Amino acid sequence: MPASQRLHGLDFLRALMMLLGVVLHACQLYMVNPVLDYYWDPARSLSMDVLLFWINTYRMPVFFLLSGFFTAMLLERHGPKAMFENRYRRIVVPFIIFLPPLAIIMTTLRIVARNVMATGETGFDLSYIENPAKLWNNTHNLWFLYYLMLYLGTVWLALKVRPKCSHGNNALTRRPIQSLATMVPLCLTLALLGSLNWPGRARAELNFIPALDVYLVYGICFGFGWLLYRRIDDLDTLAEKWKPYMIFASVMCAVALVTLLAKGTPDDARYLPMHALLSLVTGFSVGYYMLAFVGLFSRHCASYNPWTRYLSDSAYWIFIFHSIPMVMLAIPLHGWEVAAEWKFLVICTATSAICLASYQLFVRNSWIGQVLNGQRSTTVPWRKN
User: What InterPro entries does this protein's entry cite (predicted)?
Assistant: First the structure.
């Protein structure tokens, strides 16, 4: 595969991982075992827990893998100066611009949501907030940008120490990315780090103080993507073998889910061996999901498509913005007595429609679109230009 070829499939895969944030965060509102500390609905279903567990297994690992891949691509094609300038415009500037208004709006909604949960009515009583520090020590949806900035700092330091570390062959680049010699150590390392957390894998960390295990897990995924670019010809092999990788990863994910539900509490005798098994199968599930999704999208989305390109362009804005309309829609539906799945579908559909409409009407051809996507685009897939 030529290094200069535009990788439409991986562009779309990166966008899809961001767009899945809408589904993931809608699930969180209706879980039996809620993970949000500021709102969860009276209607709950185990199906929401299962869907969230599955998406969470691969979503951010795949995203950080692709971030490492495209960062290595920029460095190879344009050099360090242009790469860092590009990453500054695409990561640092959006973080600085969008975090303050996002924090103000989401903090307000957090307080109102807690009041609705406590009293059934909207209010602004701060006494219902269980952890007031999270009102200010919170990167919200932009936590992934925060960690990407940390990884860029790590790359900068590495290039200062070894300016040629991005070039040349070494033991890692001489063997195929999908080889057992690469995958087994990767998966075992992810399993070891994942064992530090209840679900056997890394979590999202929204605090401004970085969590070492989160930094290491997603940093490994970022580095794995960097390595994949150094072995870019392996994309053809992954495109051919994505099905067995997907099956294996899904089986491991299913075993992980059953183990999580069965392991009990730390006081139970079975807890430690079950948690070890959970972490082990999750590590292999994460590793092989990364291979499978890269292969799948390299095979089936390799050519230009105006619809996938449009979604790729809109994904950044949708992920930044979506929590605002989602929570604003969820709060009025608090007392609606229907199944959790129906509320989930309503919230997902309405949030997606609002986000896409706001992107097309106010973002795509504005300065915001230029900040997020690097250039203004006037083409839309449903109109001939």
Answer: Acyl_transf_3_dom, Glucan_succinyl_AcylTrfase
Residue 380 lies in a domain: no
Q: Could you count the other beta carbons within 10 Å of the beta carbon of residue 166?
A: 18
Tell me, letter by letter, the H, E, C secondary structure of the chain: CCCCCCCHHHHHHHHHHHHHHHHHHHHHCCECCCCCCCCCCCCCEHHHHHHHHHHHHHHHHHHHHHHHHHHHHHHHHHHHHHHHHHHHHHHHHHHHHHHHHHHHHHHHHHHHHHHHHHHCCCCCCHHHCCCHHHHCCCCHHHHHHHHHHHHHHHHHHHHHHCCCCCCCCCCCCCCCCCCHHHHHHHHHHHHHHHCCCCCCCCCCCCCCCCCHHHHHHHHHHHHHHHHHHHCCCHHHHHHHHHHHHHHHHHHHHHHHHHHHHHCCCCCCCCHHHHHHHHHHHHHHHHHHHHHHHHHHHHHHCCCCCHHHHHHHHHHHHHHHHCHHHHHHHHHHHCCCCCCHHHHHHHHHHHHHHHHHHHHHHHHCCCHHHHHHHCCCCCCCCCCCC
Instruction: Establish if 333 belongs to a structural domain.
Output: yes
Give the tokens for residue 301: 């989305």
Domain that holds residue 331: 10-373
Number of domains the chain is built from: 1
Asked if residue 207 belongs to a domain, the reply is: yes
pLDDT in tens, the chain (385 residues): 444 466 889 999 999 999 999 999 999 999 998 777 778 899 999 999 999 999 999 999 999 999 999 999 999 999 999 999 999 999 999 999 999 999 999 999 999 999 999 898 899 998 888 888 888 899 999 999 999 999 999 999 999 887 766 555 666 778 899 999 999 999 999 999 999 999 999 888 899 999 999 999 999 999 999 999 999 999 999 999 999 999 999 999 999 999 999 988 888 889 999 999 999 999 999 999 999 999 999 999 988 888 999 999 999 999 999 999 999 999 999 989 999 999 999 999 999 999 999 999 999 999 999 999 876 555 567 565 4
Cβ-based burial of 266 (10 A; exposed 0-12, middle 13-18, buried ≥19): exposed
Does any domain span residue 270?
yes
* CA gap 346, 355 in Å, rounded: 14
Cβ count near 264 (within 10 Å): 12
